Amino acid sequence: MRSPFGAARGRVRNIDRRWHDLPLRTRLTTAAALAATLTIVAVIAVAYLAVRHELRAQIDSQLRRQAGEVVVHTRFNPLSGSGGYEIRTQVGDIGGYSNVLSSDGRRGSGAALPVSKVDLRIARAGQGVALRDTHFAGQHVRMLTKALPATDGYAVQIALPLGDVDHQLHVLAGLFAVLAAGGLALTILLSWGAVRRVVRPVRELTETAEQIAATKDLTLRIPSEGNDELGRLATSFNTMLDALERSLGAQRQLVMDASHELRTPLASLRTNVEVLNHVDRLSPEQRAAVLAGIISQLEELTGLVADVVELARGEAPQSEHEDVALDDLVARGVDRARRHWPEVEFRVTTQPLVVRGVPGRLERAVANMLDNAGKFSPPGADVDVQLTATGTLTVADRGPGVPDEALPHVFDRFYRADEARGLPGSGLGLAIVHQVVEGHGGRITLTNRPGGGAVATLVLPAAGADITSADAVPDESQAAIDTALSDESVPVPVEETLFR
Fold first, then answer.
1. Domain 69-76+83-164, architecture per CATH
2. CA separation, residue 325 to residues 7, 81, 299, 419, 478 (Å)
3. Which tens digit of pLDDT belongs to each residue from 368-406?
């Protein structure tokens, strides 16, 4: 059997669920109207009680004044030998009633007013005053009982009708009820209008979100009005839509670029595979060349797919970041580059440095920088690699350099200068470096050196630095840059410019 408390909790939860199912505007209007109504009712109640207290205080004051003007006369009957007291007041002139009450409950010759235990106690004690409401002769009266000190065990009772006071209070209560009803109606109307205006941005936000969900159109925006919480909400929502639109655009562009870049190796691969249908007509040298071409094209496709997947991963969450010894990572990257480019001499100078990041992604960025330098370096050339304690990694080659018109685009996805189209690669290496470095709060630039070749400069904040501050990534002075660039034998940091 369900307990009463359980049933009550169930009803409360049901009411709360129904309340939250109502539209926000309805709930806000109801809450505002209820609060205003309670305020109006409280003010009206206080006003009513204040007027009632004032009117009744006047009656009480009049009763006390009449009790103070009571004249007591001793009455004696010589025939019976008995006596008593009678009073004279002016109460009768104003429609009131009076009487003398003895301690044993006997009334005098006045009005037979009702007697209570308190009245008898006052008569017996010979002191004290009591005020109370009662009914007499079909009227609502206010009665005062006061001991008569000049007598032995008597008290006087004086009553004044409250008909006029009650009538005034009834009229006042009616007026207050009309005022409360009018105030409630006006409050509901004003609350509805105010809430309608306040929640308009919320309604527009909801409608825009529903429209975006239905049409998948991320170009829609919410009008932002004011700097209050709702205005900031609209601005934040628009900022989120901007980010989503850019992200979706970048994904579409990545897919389009990747599909375009995949066509060439796939077409070559298909051609070579079709040639294998006539393998019996090929000489051993031709078969070996076709198979080598297929393997080369498969390696190119594998590298391209890996690069596209790396770009599609985006930035890693902060939970994946850890302390990374960048000098050890650079050393491993140079060992790999030496195996991959055995005809190029890599000269390394590093200083111990710890940064916060994802080891795998940082290793990929450094490897791409070294591969880019090895690819464009002629046989026997030197590639200078230097890591400073301030977090600056420079990779300087002695290749042909980068054409000036191509420098602004070297970090774009799939971009390849005309001079580099004959070399292996997908055009994604530096784009991956740029994405990884920005995701770690750093910067990457590529400049030409006066004696020929290119200098790639990567700057990362050391572990514990605030990557949101302008000082997190150090800048080198222009004088040091000019001096370093003039010395072709020593790799040095160069001025960094943030490409976005």
1. 2-Layer Sandwich (3.30)
2. 64, 127, 31, 36, 28
3. 889 888 888 888 889 999 999 888 999 998 888 888 777
**Across 163-167, 307-311, 359-363, least confident range:** 307-311
* Residue that is written with structure tokens 């870049």 in the block: 261
Give the number of C-alpha atoms closer than 13 A to the C-alpha of residue 414, restricted to the C-beta side.
14
pTM: 0.46
Q: How many Cα atoms sit within 13 Å of 272 on the Cβ side?
A: 19
Structure tokens at 85: 């007291």
Q: How far apart are CA 424 and CA 4, in angstroms?
A: 81
CATH architecture of 313-486: 2-Layer Sandwich (3.30)
Quick check: 49 pLDDT over 90? yes
Task: Return the amino acid letter for 214.
Answer: A
Q: Is the pLDDT of residue 145 over 90?
A: yes
> Can you give the C-alpha Rg of the chain in angstroms?
50
Domain ranges of the chain: 69-76+83-164, 313-486
Long-range contacts of 215-220 (CB under 8 A, 24+ apart): 218/244, 218/245, 218/248, 219/245
Q: What is the pLDDT of residue 491?
A: 38
pLDDT of residue 328: 92
Q: Please give the single-letter amino acid code of residue 464.
A: G
Residue 445 burial (C-beta neighbours within 10 Å; 0-12, 13-18, 19+): buried
**Measured distance CA(355)–CA(365) in Å, rounded:** 14
